[in-house]
Amino acid sequence: MRVKRVLLIGWDGADWKIIHPLIEAGKMPNLERFINEGVMGNLATLYPSLSPMLWTSIATGKRPYKHRVLGFIEPDPSGEGVRPITTLSRKTRAIWNIFTLVGKKCVVVGWWPSHPVEPINGVMVSNHYQRAVVPYGKPWPVRPGSIYPERLIRPLAQLRLHPQELDVGLILKFLPKLSEIDQEKDRRVENIAKIIADCTTINRAATAILDHEPWDFAAVYYDAIDHFCHGFINYHPPKLPWINERDYELYKNIVESGYIYHDLLLGTLLKRAGDDTVVILVSDHGFHSDQMRPRHIPMEPAGPALQHRHYGIFVAKGPGIKKDEIIYGASLLDVCPTVLTILGLPVGEDMDGKPLVNIFEQPPKIRVIPSWDDVPGEDGSHPPDWRIDPIETKEAIKQLVELGYIEEPDKDKQKAVEDCVRELHYNEARSYMDAGLYSKAIPMLEDLYERYPDEYRFGIQLVSCYQAIEQTVKARRVLEEVFERKRKNTRKARLELKGFREKMKDKSPEEWTQEDHRRLRKLRAEAGRNPYTMEFLMGSLLFKEDRLQEALKHLKAAERTERSQPALYTKLGEVYLKIKRWDKAERCYRKASEIDPESAEACLGLCRVYLGRRENERAVEAGLDAVGLQFHNPRAHYFLGVALHRTGRLYEAVQALKLAVHQNPNFPEAHRRLAYIYRNRLKDELLADRHKRLAEEAARRLKLIKEGKLSVTADKTEEATRSITSDQVGLLEAQQALLSSSFEPDTTVVIVSGLPRSGTSMMMQMLKEGGFPILTDDLRKPDEDNPKGYLEFEKAKQLKRDASWLPDAKGKAVKIVTQLLYYLPRQEDINYRIIFMLRNLDEVVASQRRMLQRQGKKGATLSDETLKKIFSHQLTQARLMLAAREIPTLYVDYNETLLRPEETAKRVNQFLNGRLDEERMCRAVDPSLKRQGRGIKC
Known about the structure:
Low-confidence stretches: 389-395, 713-738, 930-938
Radius of gyration: 30 Å
Number of strands: 19
Shape: globular
Structural class: alpha/beta
Strand content: 5-15%
């Protein structure tokens, strides 16, 4: 079916770590169905991870330093103070402007920022529409600039829900012990009601517009999960030791209930999507919900971003989208290019993201255009002289203060503007840093550090920039200055805190003003000196200078003040690696992994430890874990390639090393190893010379980067800018051409492969009944799990250490599980042809669990979601390996075979030169064998 529409849904702050347990408990059925019908994966965020910047990057495919939305507030052009960030700050076209330009109808509801609304080809409802800024029962006019077109103002105004209109039954879902809360003293119930009412209003408007207005593209944004988490994530189970027991019992359901409520809202949108619509659900970042939750939030603008986790969520389903698969390597910058590709439009070459081609069943043709900003025409954007009501600005600022996103602006308007500009420059510098453009960030940070020396964050980020370009002398000077200034100011703050407490001791709590509380918090933060950051940075600097014992001293000092930071233990592991203290390095990396089980750096460290010990198979496993957790990780692909090279798996090594240099073209070591493998092992002088040349070029670029003469991303070769996934698709496409290659039975081993419980026994039965010779020893007898028999060959399970039996398998079919395919030897007198069984991973895992239970065995102590993630990665890697080795492979879907065995029989027969009895093959398919699954019960 042809795609006609795209629905993009945004859940600010949504995180898989919270979602997976809720899905397993059956509490998010709509999202579970959504995932099962499409693809899912992590979505890497940008830094700084501030929502207006991130959601504008999602809408434009560009980094903040390009689109110019750089924070929560901006100076008012009139000079009269500051205002909330608006669409007027954006200096590039958003996706709805592009669609307006080409005549497509758009609906945009609640996007942050989308105020004031733009006169696009369709409907826009701004992120100020839903806020209730008046008491219940008072007139509640729609804010000017909140709704376009104006004909919809009256009907959409009637859909708004005031917090005091909420049904108490709904609030009790969030707060079962509501009656125990003194709402006069505890205002959190009021905040919860506001959040629920706001997201309900957004959903009402979105569903009404989707029902009654034409649309080709719709974008609906919900901020509620982010608000619930910023307010209540520390009350989410498991209980943190510093959280008050009573508060924990009162508020422990808030975050979970917020997700469950969003699942209900998601269901209402999915009903309106239709079969011709691709639906995409994304979040801009995740949220720490375990032991990584910070106890203290920095007393600085945007300090709450410390609670954010690097990965948000990505889910997509619809016509042409793969089903029940996990994708890797997605960034929020990729969303806009992907939506453009889905609807057949070219991608801007000035966009920083790429189309996610690995979500499509058939790789799409990618078209490009230099820049959508240069295309003439009406795009629905604002005229340059647009102005905003200052009274409305004041109310919106108040909302941001109450939600905790910003501190109340200084009453001195000039000071407020100065503070705002300072933060915008700081965020711009960090955006450059995030892109690797340190040479752009350094002058901005140097200026900020000089003008605001007591703002330690400016100095610390400047140190990080100097470190990145290996200007360690400058980095040390700045860090020592910050260190000394911090010590002096801490002593000063402690004296001031003592004086403040003395001054306030006779005041009752009721007499304290809001400014008094703010002053106390600020002094406590300044007086509570925690040297962790300084010690960690100094240790990192000394490590770069190869002063390893001094580095250890500072890192150990950091550990004495803070033992919950995985980055500390990965850095300690690096030091121990360099001095070849393998055991200590391993302990550090395992400690990092305990703190953060999803730390790709910890897995990579273990891979390097095992390489140092020459435990190469363990290194391969740890390397696979690292790239499974973070696919865009060139160092992990490199060390995985080294491990694979050492184990003799050359084609897999080449694939891993190629991914390393695609992800980081400035990687001479990876090019050198590729050159070595091609010259000395694969005997390909042409490719060896090419990678030798690329290694020399990469080394020259690195030298210029270190000297500050070239930015990290200034040089982008064609290879470097291509999507990683497009290279994988190219491999798989080339493999498809092998299906029609000639089949020589006398020299070919036919292998039936797949994960255990994916239908391999059924395929062996089909081949046997069709008249193809089978290699089996019948040692494993039929049982309840496989009443027709397994048709296995015991020696095939020992392929890793013994392949001497393979010549006897020529002209026959043998079963070999996916995980052992890597060990197929390359022999001139043996060819391979593989029938690869694919099955829904939920069904595979459930079937394996049931089989183990019947046998009285436990199996892996991993959750089903973790097993699925591992299996998905293993399948992807196996497919790429088979393609790289150019082994003809026919992929067969288990469920499709149960439904239409005649089609599978025909495909398999063609694959094996048309000598089989297709009718008898079909009779071998017994639909009653399907015991696990969400689908048909045959």
